Amino acid sequence: MVREHGQDTLSFFKLRPDKHYYFNEDRTAFVAYRVEAGTMLLSGDPVGPSQGFADLLLEVRGFARSRGLKLAAVGASEQLVKIYDELGLQALYIGDEAIVELKKFSLEGRPIRKVRQSVTRLKKAGFTAELDTLATLDRSTLPEIERVIELGRLGRPERGFSMAMDSIRGDCEQDTLFVLARDRAGAIRGVLHFVPCYGRPAVSLSMMRRDPSTPNGLTEFLVAQAIELLRARGIEEMSLNFATGARFMHAPTSRIEAGLGRLCHRLDRFFQIESLYRFNVKFFPRWDTRYLVYEGAFGLPRAALASMWAEGQIPKPRLPLMHA
């Protein structure tokens, strides 16, 4: 079903093994979800023919209510907001997805000179980039990739629910792509992992990691090289990253939004909100809005908590073990 209808940039991420699924009666459409904080939290939009989404979500709301759960969705697209509104749910802007249009991208010109300088510097240092599929990688290369992914995590827990995969070895990974940075000796030092958007010439970034001992600018080098390699493969769009509260930082429409932009700046040390936005801006993306959908007058705090737990943004408290 994802192969047939997974055009949305978040559709493939529903194949993470830590999700549950609810299918409509004729099994032509489904949602992926987890239960957190008394909330049935949907991951992005449903997958299937769009004309059946309203009926599917009506069923899902009834399913949640019959189990004493509130319904919520994280990463919902603007196209689904109207349907949620008709179901009595509310949508809150939470950020923007950075979509790089590969045909328009260029390293020429003054505005992108810092990225161009990083690319030039890394090439002079002997770094190269290559594009591979899981099928073309030999068995000895995968452990190298996983080593870099682990090093790049810097000891932090893995994050992701709606916009990232949690593995590069799953049964569904055969169509995924890797852009690898190798140093002068041929060792892998940086990794970009992309998943497909079926039915359109687009990919979504799932992981972006580098060996912390590599020179500054390696990530910019990797992204710029990935654009060239993917463009040569016929890819036209690359979903680069999700920037929480991007509008508040780059185009606030009110004093409240400007204040939220300043809050994003202060929270950057904990959640990398502003730094991720500033990284995305370097590649002059198109911004596609995403929403947090919630139910009920007091549903927002619960939906926000469920989302942060699911995405790994804040640790989920654990009950202490009871000893006999």
The CATH H-level superfamily of the largest domain is: Gcn5-related N-acetyltransferase (GNAT)
Largest sheet, if any? Answer: 11 strands, mixed
Which stretches are poorly predicted, pLDDT < 50 over at least 5 residues? none
CATH class of the largest domain: Alpha Beta
> What count of domains describes the coordinates?
2
Helix content: 25-40%
* Overall mean pLDDT: 90
Give me the side-by-side strand order of the main sheet.
1-2-3-4-11-5-10-9-8-7-6
The helix-strand sequence is HEEEHEHEHEHEEEHEHHHHEH
From the helix content, strand content and strand pairing, which structural class follows?
alpha+beta
The backbone outline, from C-alpha atoms, is: globular
Query: What fraction strand?
Result: 25-35%
Put simply, the count of helices is 11
The rounded distance between the terminal residues' Cα atoms is 48 Å
Reported CATH architecture of the largest domain: 3-Layer(aba) Sandwich
**CATH fold name of the largest domain, please?**
Aminopeptidase
**Count of strand segments:** 11
Radius of gyration computed on alpha carbons: 20 Å
